[in-house]
Amino acid sequence: MTLTQWFIFFLIVQVIHGLGTWKLYVKAGRQAWEAFVPVYNAVVLMGIINRPKWWTILLFIPIINLIMIPVVWVETCRSFGKNTYTDTALVLLTFGLYIAYINYTQDVTHIKDRSLKPKSSSGDWTSSILFAIVAATLVHTYFMQPFVIPTSSLEKTLLKGDFLLVSKFHYGARLPMTTVAAPMVHDTLPIANTPSYLKKPQLPYLRIPGFQKIKRNDIVVFNWPTDTLYNMYKAADKKYEKPVDKKTNYVKRCVGIAGDSLEIKDGYVFINGKQTVLPDRAKTQFYYTVISKKLLSATYLKEEIGTTEYNKFYKVNKAAAERYKLRDVLPFPNDSTSYMVELPGSLNLSQNRDFIPTDRYNINMSVEEKEKLAKNSSIVSITRNVKAKGEREATIFPKYGNFNWNGDNFGPIYIPEAGKTVALNKNVLPLYKDIITEYEGNKLTTDNDKIYINGQLATSYTFKQDYYWMMGDNRQNSLDARYWGFVPFDHVIGKPVFVWMSISGVELGLKNIKNWKFNTERIFTTVGGSGKPVSYLPYFLVVLLAWQGYVFYKKKKTKKEE
After folding, report:
1. pLDDT tens for residues 455-513?
2. pTM summary value
3. 3-state class of 410 per DSSP?
4. CB burial string 289-312: b at 16+ within 10 A, e below
5. Residues 411, 405: contact at Cβ < 8 Å?
6. Is residue 76 within 8 Å of 87, Cβ to Cβ?
7. CA 318 to CA 245: how far, in whole Å?
8. Residue 491 CB: number of other CB atoms within 10 A?
9. Which is nearest to 216 in space by CA: 279, 141, 307?
10. 3-state class of 496 per DSSP?
């Protein structure tokens, strides 16, 4: 729905409200016309139901108003003596229309100084839970959102199992576009594993101004533009249509901002012709083929070198390869009866005689880790795996067109900036088609070499918003912009600022809780900054104990005074 459509809908709701409540306003000592004036009528109503005027604000905040409006319905009934369980059920089941029934058919009296204290413990609990949800939703939506790192794409800076607090106010909080959704969950209802929202109606994109812009090398949380997950727990076999704010949350490093020219050479990013220099906490990682005279154990690689991502090559005869239905096998040197197969290092095949270990490994490492491994006397060679320039990778962006790019050698490509214009032709169209059609809502057709946008012949296009290029530091193990393209600013959620908990293995789920490990040195650390992250947990515990001591002292003092 457009802003105009929402405005008309809002006026209709105000008329319905006025028609359904004006007599109640009069019985409360107000004027009938006050029931019809938008916003002002809500302020007056708060006085009628003996609630603070700032509640009016909550009635107009998306998602939170889904909780507050039914609460106001119930409170209105109770302010006129309709406080039975039946009254509560009727006003909720009729979506507030029961109030109109009271307005026109019942001789009620306004209870001016109505007690706001719940009459039962269940009512007290319900009230507390509702307002806890409102407060948490307000913080979650407009100030700070919790987020869990699910993959190793930013390994070394952010680890799998890091629990982040993501700031909404750095880049400006985005107002929810999905108007009907469960509070404080993303796209999926827990346990039920079903969508947590209705696709319609939708609010237009609006954002509260932030106090900084996205900078190069910022770590950013955003909605994945080409989402292929049905929900947070179920993958789809194609792009799945979701509202923008319900697309899967991703976290990557912004290596290129709007207006930049980006190119990747042998895995390294170049912006406007200069190689990117990452912050000292960031460690770019690549896969290396390693030949070793001795076994490299998982324990050695993790504790001595610092890497956990590696594959091992095995020799397997052709009969066994067919029996295990192995894919991506390679010819084994000087042995036509066998294959060489690459399998994850986490697999324990020491007791399986069909798989004979070779001296070859494929290990994901930073430059520092590679240099450390090279000092091992058993290492014969270490070679970085890089796809050659001009070697086309089928899954790379864009999926069609004459672009012989791959994950290691990509571009150059222009990152669109709001208000800037690019020349359009059939050669560059694959780069910007999704922007023109999906992200900026135009209709695009082609006729031979001619391009039509909204029915008009187009030889150029002017972008409506800024775009960004998001990548992982784990260069050869990251599903990032190289595979799905630009991130529009309206997809940006916020900036990670704090790691409040870190549990290795948490991504494996509760069934594998025995394998969880708390990374105590990462708890209460900042995401940004230089040098090794410092935990502020001890300081937090001291403040917490001091606060608890103060509360205990105040209670004891109050009790003594009584």
Report:
1. 999 999 999 999 999 999 999 989 899 999 999 999 999 999 999 988 887 776 777 78
2. 0.86
3. strand
4. ebebeeebeeeebeeebbbbbbbb
5. yes
6. no
7. 49
8. 23
9. 279
10. strand
CB 188 within 8 A of CB 195: yes
- Phi and psi at 473, nearest 5°, equal -70, -25
| Cβ–Cβ under 8 Å, residues 240 and 195 | no
Q: How far apart are CA 41 and CA 54, in angstroms?
A: 13
Q: From edge to edge, which strands make up the β-sheet containing 450-453?
A: 444-447, 450-453, 456-457
Phi, psi angle pair for 289, to nearest 5°: -85, 120
Give the 3-state secondary structure of residue 90.
helix
Enclosing H/E stretch for 309 = none
Residues 486 and 467: beta-carbon distance below 8 Å: yes
**pLDDT in the model for residue 121:** 65
On the question of a cis peptide bond just before residue 398, with omega within 30 degrees of 0, the verdict is yes
The set of residues, in sequence order, having a beta carbon less than 8 Å from that of 18 and lying 6+ positions away, is 35, 36, 41
What secondary structure does DSSP assign to 133-153, as a single string?
Answer: HHHHHHHHHHTEEEEE--SST
> 204-214: per-residue pLDDT in tens?
999 999 999 99
pLDDT beyond 60 at 44 = yes
Report angle CA 522, 527, 529 to the nearest 5 degrees. Answer: 110
Single-letter amino acid code for the residue at 458: A
Alpha carbon distance 436, 322 (integer Å): 47
Q: Which residues pair with 384 in a beta bridge?
A: 288
Q: Is the peptide bond before 412 cis (omega within 30 degrees of 0)?
A: yes
Q: What span, in angstroms and rounded, lies between the C-alpha atoms of 49 and 51?
A: 6
CA 244 to chain centre: 11
Q: pLDDT, tens digit, for every residue of 430-451?
A: 999 999 999 999 999 999 889 9
The percent helix, strand, coil of the chain (3-state, each to 5) is 30, 25, 45
Tokens of residue 481, six digits: 């912009």
Distances (CA, A) of 303 to 296, 300, 372, 550: 12, 5, 12, 44
Q: Which residue's entry shows tokens 């784990």?
A: 474
Give residue-wise pLDDT tens across range 65-91.
Answer: 888 999 999 999 999 999 888 999 999
Q: What local confidence, expressed as pLDDT, does residue 229 receive?
A: 67
Q: How large is the angle between the packed helices 40-48 and 3-27, nearest 10 degrees?
A: 40
Cis before 183 (ω within 30): no
The conformation of residue 316, written as its DSSP 8-state character, comes to E
Q: Which residue has the tokens 């296009």?
A: 461
Amino acid, res. 215: K
Dist. CA 245–CA 186, nearest whole Å: 9
Give residue 310's pLDDT. Answer: 94
Record the tokens describing residue 248, joined without a space. Answer: 């899967």
Residue 432, Cα to own-chain centre: how many angstroms?
A: 24
Query: Closest Cα partner for 491 from 462, 469, 463?
Result: 469
Residue 335 phi/psi, 5-degree rounding, is -150, 100
Q: In which element (H, E) is residue 26 found?
A: helix 3-27
- Helices 98-105 and 3-27 pack at an angle, to 10 degrees, of 40
At 93, which amino acid appears? Answer: L
Question: Distance between CA 105 and CA 215 in Å, rounded?
Answer: 62
State how far the alpha carbon of 522 is from the alpha carbons of 79, 342, 536, in Å: 52, 33, 9
